[in-house]
Amino acid sequence: MKKLLLTLLGTIALTSTANAVEPITADFSTWETTTISTTETTATVDGVKYGFLGANINKGYNDAPNYLFIQGKKQKEPKAYVTFTLPFDCSKIVLTTTAGNSTNNRNTVDFYAGETAIEQGKAVNKQNVEFTFSVPSENASAGTVYKIQTATTQYNQQIASIKFYPVTNDPSLEADTKELAFAVGMNGKQTKTVKLLAANLTDVITVSSTSNITTEKASYTVEEASEGIDITFTGNKDSEGESNSTITFSCNGITAEVSVTAYTASASGETETDPLTVSDVLAMNSINGNVFYVKGVIGDKGCKNALNGMVTEADAPSASNLIFKEGEKMIGVGLSIAETKAELNIVDNPQNIGREVIVKGNLENYFGGPGVKQTEFVKYLSEPVSGIEEVGADENAPVEYFNLQGVRVANPSAGIYVRRQGSKVEKVYIK
Questions:
Q1: Per-residue model confidence as pLDDT tens digits over 56-96
Q2: Rounded to whole angstroms, how far apart are CA atoms 193 and 195?
Q3: How far is the CA of 3 from the CAs of 13, 50, 118, 244, in angstroms?
Q4: Which sequence spans correspond to the domains of the chain?
Q5: Comparing C-alpha atoms, which of 213, 362, 341 is closest to residue 276?
Q6: Residue 358, Cβ neighbours under 10 Å: how many?
Q7: Is there a smaller number of Cβ atoms within 10 Å at the N or the C end of the chain?
């Protein structure tokens, strides 16, 4: 531990002293790598005491900067965490994620002051973004142990830096996030909560926004705003496609703004008669993880890791997933439900390749790109596609192969083909 402390003392960059109004920044890109431990390790730097359990300083991938890695997947009980004990009264803590941080909606953390849970299940699911944790005045005293702990054992958190803000006497107003993203079907609604960090204000906080964005009230007390203001976006014809707007919070001449980006699909996605398309799912970008109906054409390969925000094709079909296609666009579709897998998987049902189908499921990242999980089969929109018609011939006729567009293939390589021998026509997979 002494070696770890000396390493940290020699490598950490802190931007100010504890008595300054400016925040103190722990920039993990300047820390040397450490090994993960299943028991808590500690280090004290410039009066700030750090504790790590199931967390370590990880080497950046492909020469990227080092970062704090909270390994939720490996450390199950107790869950992985990092703690901070500050020598000054603290008003807020701001962490910045890395470019490799998971963007899944379920990538969440819990924030504690001592044994008190301040925030639970807070999403940290964007890359290169600041996430703010407000410290209530009753928990702001110097010497308080603050803890950021993974709230999930399915995802890890990658943190580039953490800033600690001392308490000041100046009036201030800030939102705990600088941007919100919404994604809805036509006439659909999505609600997210913004907490305001306010200090030394004497009036109510007012809210102004565009017509598509609503709040329960037009103004809030400081106490109400600190608990959270529900922001609801409603999609309609006026907002169809992508839209951008701003929410402004104001008090005592001070304002805080939150940028809003939203996508409204042309379909509602709420019924099988009005399903979302592959294009819609890609545009919604896993921002809304609710259940939607989705239609697509079944491809002839399984899923592989995403490239440029879209799943790619594996070398062969898979029994556990599908790819839905719409021209060159693709999304992954998980087949974790037994009945859906039995009905749709193209290893056992090669005749499904090329069929248009409707499913319903949660819009979540799958293989690193927007997709559908917990998928339920709804119905087919087209009959099996062979690409050729059956013709009569005797059983001794030669074997012929066609691709899925009906073009004859003399020497088929690996892939899915239509095989014809006499009157027998079937889809086959050639390894």
A1: 999 988 889 999 999 988 888 899 999 999 999 999 999 99
A2: 7
A3: 18, 15, 34, 50
A4: 2-166, 172-264, 278-380
A5: 362
A6: 19
A7: C
Cβ atoms within 10 Å of 181's Cβ, excluding its own: 18
> What does DSSP say about strands 291-298 and 321-326: parallel, antiparallel, or unpaired?
antiparallel
* pLDDT tens, position by position, 307-343: 998 999 998 889 999 999 999 999 999 999 999 999 9
At 406 the pLDDT is 61
- Residue for token pair 């079944």: 298
Structure tokens at 274: 């009005």
Strand partners, 234: 189
**Cα–Cα distances in Å, from 117 out to 108, 148, 149, 287?**
14, 10, 11, 26
Cis omega (within 30 of 0) for bond into 78: yes
Contact assessment for residue 31 and residue 11, using Cβ atoms and an 8 Å cutoff: yes
Q: Are 154 and 73 in contact (CB under 8 A)?
A: yes
CATH number of 172-264: 2.60.40.10
Residue 11 one-letter amino acid = T
Question: Of the candidates 78, 73, 47, 43, which has an alpha carbon nearest to the alpha carbon of residue 57?
Answer: 43
Report residue 388 as tokens: 């050729």
Helix (H, G, I), strand (E, B) or coil at 47: coil
Q: For residue 331, give both structure tokens.
A: 């999304």
Task: Label residue 2 exposed, middle or buried (CB < 10 Å: 0-12, 13-18, 19+).
Answer: exposed
Q: Measuring CA to CA, how many Å separate 105 from each of 80, 197, 365?
A: 19, 23, 8
Instruction: Give the architecture (CATH level 2) of 2-166.
Output: Sandwich (2.60)
